[in-house]
Amino acid sequence: MAPALVFLFTTASIFFFAFLALDVLQRAFEQYKLRYVTKSMNDLSDMFLFIEPGQILLLNFIAFVVVAAVGYWLGGPFFGSIAAVGGFFAPIGAVRYYRRRRIRLFNTQLTEALQQMSNALRAGLTFQQAIEQIGKESNAPLRQEFGLFIKEIKLGVPVEEAMINLSNRVGSEDMELVSTSTNIARQLGGNMAEMFEVIAATIRERFRLEGKIGALTSQGKMQGWVVSSLPLFLGLFLNWYRPDLMEPMFENAYGYVLVSVIIILETIGFLLIRRIVAIDV
Hints:
88% of the residues lie in helices and 0% in strands. The protein has nine helices and no strands.
């Protein structure tokens, strides 16, 4: 009788804890979809890349599995688990990288577009006509953003609101400066052609300073990458060349704690170096 009660109690406890774990995982997955999937879809749609939510989840799962398998093949279970974490966040990093690259390209195109808008206004075109002409002659992403701006105006959206939507959609500080200056000039009056020339000159000067600072801090950035990646590659090489030296480290908990501490310290050092050499203009 007693063994039966113990078995029944154990089974009920396992079922209860499994139910709680399932509920927690379900809530975590819902939060994941709400935060990651929704944000990724918004970022991608702002970049005129329209992907279904199911495709985003599938891409994330494939990246997780592939990177984890490669890490396990190269360095065993421990490196496989670390690679799995990197693979899980890889799609997020890819979206952010692509968005930053798009913003840089847009800012580069915006400088020339402002000069062309200044010339068009001096030639007698209206503000809307100047943007429409430049949008047709430019390449993506400026052509896409200016084209959507013109479509909003034709659908009845006020110019000021369309400029704000354009600035929020692009996510560029330079475009935000142009949007704010344009709305103020349209409301209070002013020479918009001269204003666009001044903004274009300001952006060019900022590009020049950023390039000079980037050249001066490139050595520090490279040192950060080398210092943080050297222990990883050294460990992978020793694990391949002399596995008998590395296996004792992963046979007890002290080895895992040591490797974890090394990874944390290397990450902190890399972030500190990146923060020191990151100069905002």
